[in-house]
Every structure is written in C-alpha cells, then in structure tokens.
Amino acid sequence: MGKFKARLFGSAFSAAMLGAALATLTAAPANAAATCTSAVTIYSDGSHTVHAVVPGVSGGASWNPGECHLSEGSSGAGVKAMQRGLNSCYGAGITADGQFGPKTRAALIAVQKRIGVSADGIFGPNTRGAMNWMAFNDSGPMNCRYFKYA
Question: Which SUPFAM superfamilies would you find in this protein's record (predicted)?
Fold first, then answer.
C-alpha cells in the first residue's frame, strides 16, 4: 500500500508541475497587445457633439494607441467598426461582418498605402492614428474626418 500511495502522490505531483509549466509557457506576456474587442465612441476636440465609432478595447483606455491591434483572423465589434471606417471613408466596398478575412486585409493594405503608413495589413496604432473616421452628430452622419487620439 505504501508504494501505491507514493506512486499516486508522485503522479499527482508530476501532473501538477506539468500543468504549472504549461500554464507558464502559454500565458501571454504582460506587455502583449490587446485585441480590439469592442466598438467605442470617441469625441472630437473634447466636445460631446461630434463623435466617431472606432475599434477599441472594452474596459480599457479606448483610444490608447498602444493597446489596439487587429489582424487577419480577428473578429468582433472592433473589426466591424474598422470595416465600416474603411467603407465609409475610403470606399473599400467590403462586407462589414466583423470577420477579418483576406478581403478586409487587402482593403486595409490599400488604405494603409493611401494614408502613408506601413502597408502590413495589421490595424494598429499607426494605422488608427492616421485614418479618417465617419463623424456623427445628433442629426446623424456628417463626413469623414480625422479624430485625434490620446
């Protein structure tokens, strides 16, 4: 019985250590870029009369240039906000379905070339900071304009 308990304890201990090692290996680094899981509202020039809906991080500083990244394979409200921006301000003609696929990537690369940022097909702080977004006020859509980010 003693050998059985020792083997059982040894196996349980080994499994626990393996699990801890795997958790350590698969944990995201503290400085990893967040994905834009939400569509957030930002305001122009500090007023609350003109706004745009842009990709952002839910619960985070929504317009922080270092925290929002989208790439092929991303999905959700953040991708949909980006797709709508590409369509409304740059005539991309893509479906705003919240799925970042090859057509969205190609449209983003075309816009990146047009606005003079690295055409890598990744929506990050440089692209977001250079893009125009559809502006809205209480009456509805206005036009495309640059929204300064913090």
Answer: PGBD-like
Q: Taking a C-beta distance cutoff of 8 angstroms, is the pair 116, 130 a contact? A: yes
What's this model's pTM, rounded to 2 decimal places?
Answer: 0.71
> What is the phi/psi pair of residue 96, to 5°?
-85, 80
Please say whether the beta carbons of 94 and 83 come within 8 A: yes
Tell me the CATH number at 135.
1.10.101.10
For the stretch 10-56, pLDDT in tens is: 444 344 433 333 333 333 333 445 567 777 777 776 667 888 888 88
Q: Which domain holds residue 130?
A: 38-146
Cβ atoms within 10 Å of 66's Cβ, excluding its own: 11
